[in-house]
Amino acid sequence: MQWKRITAVTATVMLAVAACGSPSSSNSSGNSDSKLGGAQVKATDATAKGPAPEIEGAKKGGIITVLSDVTPDTFDPSNIYYTDGNQIAKLYMRALTQYKLDEKTQKPTLVPDLAEDLGTKSADGLTWTFKLKQGIKYDDGTVVKAADYAYAIKRAFAHELYDAGPAYHIQFFKDGDKYKGPYEQKGAPYAGVETPDEKTLIIRLAKKFDDLPFYAAFPLFTPIPEAADTKKEYELKPKSTGPYKLASLTPGTELKLVKNPNWDPNTDPVRKQYVDGFTFKFAQDTIKVQRQVLASSGVDANALNYSNLDASLLNEVKDPSQIIKGDSPCVITYAMDSRKIPLDVRKLIGKAYPYDDWRKVAGLTPDTAVPASTYLPPAVPGYEKYELPGLTGKGKGAQDPAVAQEVKDKLKELGKENFELSWYYSNDDPIATQVNQLRTQTFQKAGFKVKAIGVPKAKIRTLIGKQDGPINIGKAPANWCSDWPSGTSWFPVLYKSDAIGLGNSQGQLEDKKLDAEIDRVSALTPDEQLKEWPKVDKMIMTEYLPSIPLYYAASAFPVGKNIGHVVNDPTQGMPDFTTLFLKQP
Amino acid sequence: MSIGSPDSTVGVEDHPASAEPVRSATVAHGKSPTRIAIDRLRKDKVAIVCVTVVVFFILVAALAPLLTKLEGSDISTFNADLVDEYGYPTIIANAQHWFGVEPKTGRDNFARWVYGARPSLAVAFVATLVGTIVGVVMGLLAGFLGGWVDRIISWVIDFVLSLPYLLFAIAMVPIVESLRGGSFNLSPSEQASTRFLVLIFVLSFFGWAGLARIIRGEVLSLREREFVLAAKAIGVPTHQVLFKELLPNLVAPIVISASLSLPAYVTAEAGLSFLGVGLIEPIPSWGQTIANATNWFKADPLYLWLPVLGITVLVLALALLGDAVRDAFDPKTRR
After folding, report:
1. ipTM passes above 0.85
2. Which residue of A has its CA nearest to B295?
């Protein structure tokens, strides 16, 4: 999952917790996937039933305002991939599965949502059968049909239209590489989904994809009736299945949600419907709204902001309970195009990188960013801590003259003196320009030649997103968040050769041996994968080094004094909106 | 003693507000209006203080490299050791950093302050100079030649005055960048210098029109005066009539206009940089520093107050000086 802010080196979010735990065995099991041993267990619970237990002290009524500085790019269920859009969509779109957070530890458990169970896998692992809950209604009172689930899945294959959405179905579903969605081949049969009756949804795969139940929590698995589909305009008038429904959406500015009377709490094991509605205001000024939320005067007490508290406001926090902290499934790296920079030079870049100084200049605090030494964050099962010298996310790098000289000498040995590093930075963002100066100075000290290209902030996402762009440093995705707690959400997506074509490659690796190794581990049972991913992680770091891990992100966002039960959802690094209430509505 | 004889002091005594000193009859007499104005200025205490302040800032800007050398810092070194892990400076001031360091980056506040005076003054003085020269020449030509020249120049003046200058300042940057080879081929400092030149260009381009209009009006009335007619009659070439006969009579409006536009340009530069459409890093400027520092005014007050103080004092001094100059040159003003 792409992070909600790619230019995130700037005013950053997320307070990290040093030893992030992974979902542990404390969760109940009941699914074939969860018989994993040890501390790292994928937590699933196929038997969870609605309604969700009442929260102590919760009251009904009132409107919660979310003042956001970032703007989600889309609210189309097939197109949502960023964490913020995903988290907000949960309020009004239900998918096949969802996460239930542990009341004490906030550890996530995968539970059924609109499905009765978490899917049943066939013996060869290529056919999944989901039993569907009956009597689910849309907000207008019409009944959800099995065909609507199938249509939503088919719709997501129109990836040229929904280009920001996730692409796992294209990679793993049957004929995923050929089928182009229901628009181009109208009415064309798609063999990947089938609905033999109103109670059953069958998904056929091209290759094994044991994380399908996790993938089924994405909004693209929300039912969409074919008759209601207006393509790109669907986000303005979506069919709601959650406790809230869309009242109005002004893209880029405002989203208003009101209660959905046709939501049945007895079918939903997670969501509550305490407040009367939500108002999301986007594109606000970060510092201004965070100050507002901290001060909590008047209606601002009912407001929250889901970006990490700006470091300059630390002095203004009077009540520490207004800052909600927790894990986030993200790692921020310094990506290098392996097709343009040889491995030996990449290692020297890692050595020269000014980790400590960069963290300060970029405004990262120890609360928001834990130095990273692996590709997999501690929040994901399969993480195993290891530290390679010089790649620990700490140290002065070439800001230390001795290291600078060493790197310079080694570059000379390799015959790569004045090797040119090129990257984009936004020249209208003061922090980005300062970070750019620091990196330029440091790499020049270490004997590199630097070509830094300043571009407007509005253009940088598009430019760094081009896998074949003219730069050799910092191509997206340099920041990655796991889509679900498993290594399969990282390694096959980021480091296989076909990731370049899918626009998701970190370091643009094209290596047959690595592809084979990732494929081998992906094909193992989840149980065995847990022991194998750390080896793959370390192998990529030592033998390929497509990117330098910088830090593991975590959350620390400010909330108004009147909002109750604000918890951080570690699957998104965002507040869990679905259980909020107002203490005094 | 007859009125109007060369050594008469009658006229002076009849003007009690005149700053011209009463001389004894023995002193040689006959001063130019400029000389009279400068004499008046010299008596004006406020003007003297303002001149001192402005000269101080000019010296600071001119000697910036020397001053930072004296301090032992420079504008671009990141002293990350001097800020804690949350970005807050760990020192307030020391022998190495007289005014402390910036939050987060740890760059030297003093060095960035003295270097920040440079773009403010450079932009203001260059834009004033260019605007004044262009405005005076255009105004003289339009007023003196008349006819189709006057019509064209007047039309251009009206056209320029009708353009929105803020939009122009924003739109010019990408145009000039593409003229210089496109932003992809420009280094950060080239991009910053492009902004600098664009800023000067935009301010001068929009500054000349107003002055040209005033000068044109003055010339229109002056050109019918006897001394001009006499000069024309004896066959003095046009450029000599313009610059030898007319120009000296226009010193007052020119000096007044220039002295009033200086502080306006200093504010304009700071304002545009604050909004992010003026100067950008790596060129240090007060406007940018203020924009960054507003979030840190509690944690690191010096970081914010230094550039604020710089701009306020400089603009105030320039504005009061402009007022004093106007009073001195304009005999109709009475205090």
Report:
1. no
2. A312
